[in-house]
Amino acid sequence: MLKRILVFGLIFVLCLSAAGLFYFFTVDDGISEQQYRDAFRRNYKIFTVAVPDQIDFAGEEVPMKVFYVNESLDRELLVNTYWHNRTVLMFKRAHRWFPLMEPILAEYGIPDDFKYLTVIESGLSNVVSPSGATGFWQFLKGTAKDYGLEVDKDVDERYHVQKSTEAACKYFRESYQKFNNWTLVAAAFNAGKRRISEALEEQNEKSYYDLLLSDETSRYVFRILALKTIFENPTDYGMFLREKDFYPPIPVKTITIDKDIKDFVAFASEHDISYKVLKMFNPWLRDKKLAVKRGKTYTIAIPVDEYLDYEGLTDGMNDDPVIYGDTLNFEEL
Q1: What is the C-alpha separation between 145 and 167, in angstroms, rounded?
Q2: Residues 230, 277: Cα–Cα separation, whole Å
Q3: Which end of the chain is least crowded, N or C, by CB within 10 Å?
Q4: Which DSSP helix (H) or strand (E) runs through 253?
Q5: What backbone torsions phi and psi does residue 256 show, to the nearest 5 degrees?
Q6: CA atoms of 96 and 245, how far apart (whole Å)
Q7: How many alpha carbons fall within 13 Å on the CB side of residue 69?
Q8: Chain-wide mean pLDDT for the chain?
């Protein structure tokens, strides 16, 4: 009898072991598929974004009651809210570059909203498009020269943030004289003044929002409006950033050059920086040397001492745990 009990006990233990092994190999970490799906539904949430009832571009009201205007802005708000890694990067870069552009826009009488065009055009970086458009403002070579930028084998001022911003301002001011409307000026920067003029005439319309344009130009102003909305109301679109999260401006000193530089590697060494840093702060210098014509001068930017000390650069930035663009404290999240 005892032997039979032991046999049955052994069988029972083996059955429990087999069941345990089956459970171990078929269910990861003891979580059932249903439990996993339930946890996914509890913790992964996507919400629609707020579309403002009223918004303007450069002081010109956007007709938000028109259904396709409302839905076009909704699309771009969704794209920039949920493409959040890029949008956060734009916030970081803007803190460094907007302060260089804003006074130039103001000096030329151009509305501040035009700074957002550089976010759309280039992502606030000196990129080159397949068509050859270059720099923050994405000027083509011919257009750049038309508006006073030097473009040759030694120097390409499309890479110079301040000078290219001045050229963009000249374009905007000239376009405004033609269209007397800032929204059309922005659209013309994308499509060209001639195409916008032809579209207005052919379609017998006066407003950008009533024109049938290419997909790129049809989206262009709405992309600007979406970024403006998110930048001005970051927490409404899930951007909980602190000022200390942004890229700090890097102070520079300038050197005026009025004669040839035969070797920029040697020039950089003389000023206690690397050739790489020299080109980072002066990307408009396109060669390893510079020929200076009689009567011509150039201004080269050199970062101040200790520019490599990131903590030093961020010392002047707000270290409070207050969320940028809101009154929330980080601990309240």
Answers
A1: 9
A2: 33
A3: N
A4: strand 252-257
A5: -85, 130
A6: 12
A7: 18
A8: 89
Does residue 138 sit within a domain?
A: yes
Long-range contacts of 43-48 (CB under 8 A, 24+ apart): 46/82, 48/78
- The pLDDT of residue 3 is above 50: no
* Res 273: pLDDT: 94
d(CA 275, CA 65): 55
Domain that holds residue 158: 56-236
**Residues 6 or more apart in contact with residue 306 via CB below 8 angstroms:** 312
Q: Going by C-beta distance under 8 Å and a sequence separation of 6 or more, which residues neighbour residue 101?
A: 115, 118, 161, 162, 165
With a CB cutoff of 8 Å and minimum separation 6, the contacts of 238 are 81, 84
With respect to residue 305, please indicate whether it lies within any of the assigned structural domains: yes
Q: Which residues contact 44 (CB under 8 A, 6 or more apart)?
A: none
From the list 246, 219, 217, 241, the residue with the least C-alpha distance to 230 is: 241
pTM for the model stands at: 0.85
Q: Both 118 and 205 in a single domain? A: yes
What are the distances in angstroms from CA 291 to CA 155, 243, 284? 9, 42, 14
Q: Are residues 231 and 270 in the same domain?
A: no
Q: 132-191, pLDDT tens digit by residue?
A: 999 999 999 999 999 999 999 999 999 999 999 999 999 999 999 999 999 999 999 999
Residue 47 has pLDDT above 90, yes or no: no
Spatial contact of 138 and 121, defined as CB atoms under 8 Å apart: yes
Q: Report the CATH number at residue 210.
A: 1.10.530.10
**Could you tell me the pLDDT band of residue 60, with boundaries at 50, 70 and 90?**
very high
Over pLDDT 90: what percentage of the chain?
73
Identify whether residues 273 and 174 lie together within a single domain.
Answer: no
Q: Which of 4-18, 31-45, 306-320 has the highest mean pLDDT?
A: 31-45
> What is the rounded distance in angstroms from the CA atom of residue 302 to the CA atom of residue 90?
25
Place of tokens 């509890």: 42
pLDDT number for residue 233: 93
Q: Which of 126, 149, 143 is nearest to 189 (CA)?
A: 143
